[in-house]
Amino acid sequence: MGRSPCCEKAHTNKGAWTKEEDQRLIGYIKAHGEGCWRSLPKAAGLLRCGKSCRLRWMNYLRPDLKRGNFTDDDDELIIKLHALLGNKWSLIAGQLPGRTDNEIKNYWNTHIKRKLLNRGMDPHTHCPISAASGLTTSTTAPVFPSSPAPASRLANAPFAFQSSTVSFARPSPSDDGHSSSGGSSDAPRCPDLNLDLDLDLSMSLPCSPPKTAPPAKSTPTSHQQQGICLCYHLGVRNGEACTCKTASPAGPRVFRFLRPLEEGQYI
DNA sequence: AACGTGTCCAACCGCTATATA
DNA sequence: GTATATAGCGGTTGGACACGT
To answer: Which of A87, A198, A237, A257 could form a disulfide with A162 if both were Cys (CB 3.0 to 4.6 A apart)?
Structure first.
């Protein structure tokens, strides 16, 4: 049968963490490293479930976390990444070193949403409010702020935003957060959305698929059956947030964020 | 000072994908 | 092959705090 339960839920603490609990968790991870969250609480002498320990460590105790306010550059980067990725907070967080998905999610909900609304932008569609309400036309394009993200900032991202116009499939943000997590059934919005964003595929990306990586396992009958894993281009590798990996050596490659190749484009 | 309202954010909840017995 | 646990994600909640009246 399956595994044994991860923890005795009846004997676990909930709510805010105490300093002592924090110190126990930090001490244990410093000594043993991040590992099996399932066994960590017991080993560290914590009356918490592993899930709670992981969350506390990831969102608050990790030494590489950056504290403090977001800059305007950060704001613009988050806005553009959100336009690109939707509510994929972990992927967005991956582009902002030291920031957590939870932090960015909170920041989005408390600051950026309002900021976009003040600009007359729908924070979910990134379209002008009138367009988002169904009056959009094919010429309607989202208006990004007059002060675009500085090139110096964007240059730090492992992909480039360019002025060329290439639209591509992307996961849609959930509709105002009312959809269940992982929802992917959003209806297309702003079908002619020109995000004014592009992935510079010519770039040498630090996380580009290794040259030894096999091509798409199942030999596609046409190039359109192939695709580019956006996770790679966003700096996410297997073992991190990206699960775009071959489930088994013989299994199919599953791309969660698939950009179909353009005509004449090859990996 | 007391109260009401709004904001922030840490933590929890529920879900999915994957791993394991 | 099936059932179940784990890891991780996004959505939501509720307490603490700030501010205005």
So the answer is: A198
Q: What is the pLDDT of residues A37-62, one digit of tens each?
A: 888 888 888 888 888 888 888 888 88
The Å distance, CA of A23 to C1' of B10, is 17
Residues A23, A88, single domain; the answer is: no
- pLDDT at position A11, please? 63
How many structural domains does chain A have? 3
Domain residues for the domain of A194 are 68-200
pLDDT of residue A46: 86
Cβ neighbours, 10 Å, residue A198 = 17
Neighbours of A267 (CB within 10 A): 14
| Residue A3 maps to a domain | no
* Closest nt by CA–C1' to A67: B9
The answer to whether the beta carbon of residue A68 comes closer than 7 angstroms to any atom of strand B is no
Q: How far is the CA of A161 from the C1' of C10 (A)?
A: 26
- Residue A243, CB, less than 7 Å from strand B? yes
Contact A134, A57 (CB under 8 A): no
Do residues A194 and A208 both lie within one domain? no
Are A104 and A180 in a shared domain? Answer: yes
Protein CA A25 to sugar C1' B6 (Å): 34
Chain B positions under 7 Å from a protein CB? Answer: 7-21
Mean pLDDT of each 10-residue bin along chain A, 267 residues long:
44 82 88 82 86 88 83 86 86 87 87 83 77 42 38 41 37 37 38 43 36 35 41 43 37 40 42
Angle at A141 between CA A123 and CA A163, to 5 degrees: 105
